[in-house]
Amino acid sequence: MTDTSSDLQKYGVPFYGAGWAPYNHIKSKLASQEKIEEDKKEEKDPTPSNDDEITTPLNYVVLAGGGGEGRSGIPNAIVVSHVNFTSNSLSDQPVVKHETGSDLPYRMTVHPHGDGIICAFQQSCRLFEWKESEGNEVHKLGVKVSEKVLIQLEDVGQQLALTFNSEGSVLAVGGEDGSLRVFKWPSMKIVLNEAQAHSSVKNLDFSCDGKFLVSLGSGLCRIWDVTSSKVVASLAKGNDEVFAFCRFSQINDKNPHLYIAAVTDYGGSILTYNTTTWKRIRTSRVVREAISAFNVSSDGKFLAVGTVGGDLFIINSANMRVQMMVKKAHLGLVTALTFSPDSRALVSASLDSSARLTLIKDKTSS
Fold first, then answer.
1. Where are the WD repeats (predicted)?
2. Number of structural domains found in the chain
3. What pLDDT sits at residue 69?
4. Fewer C-beta within 10 Å: the chain N or C terminus?
């Protein structure tokens, strides 16, 4: 089924990463900080409360990318866009565009409980925090560089994969050099430091219970027990397969799955694994082109695939059939996909500087 219920916006930044902002958690943190500041004033300058202005639930998506180090004139930036589900649209202008100078935010991850955004630059990783923007705008969410320096991730080279567990208590980081580091958050106490987990770490994901971490190289997938820091399984590719992305099914049921998106001689396939035996239980060829982006909805019902040709596919995980398709969703290859927390929408991003909001049709209510 081809979809027409989607909205495309261009923001002038080639995107490499995307994630939803956990607005309720962010709002709570900002309100707590504001109260602390007000208490410090000791009622010297009483002003009317602005609480009513932030009670309306808002939806934001954060995107990161840029033109790199050259003098192309294309900025490197973190972009925040407002999502309007009533009109099914992204804001035509960014809520904020926080430029990062000559440093390209090549990968990013959003803390699930509002602690901020971590971006991977060429040599180091940097934390950005949420803030309320100045003035009386409707869209009040902003971004600032954190005073907290991630010393353990300074001068470590380009990191290609960053992810938090669902609780936001553990951070995993994988490098172009094959290193895998896992930290407690926010203490940054290291719990796993593997110098050669892969020749290069392409993708990482935690299981929904946080017990396992999957790390992916081109030809090998490793499953780590987070508590013991030991490898419990190694999954090898087939003859014509190149592993590209990995995601655990985020359903807390008796049979959670691990999905690996692979590029083959015949297009893109999704490989499904049992998370008890770690045996492959299904191989599903889903697209004719190479897969360039992949994600799983939080309810586990849908898989999203983006291709090098700019097409977008939403796949029903129950039968591995394409439920929705957006041909030429982007002019360039799709680089990032992120589902809304309620699984009703998908934001895709591309090197063509565009972001697209797509509502998922025929979603059965639970």
1. 327-357
2. 1
3. 87
4. C
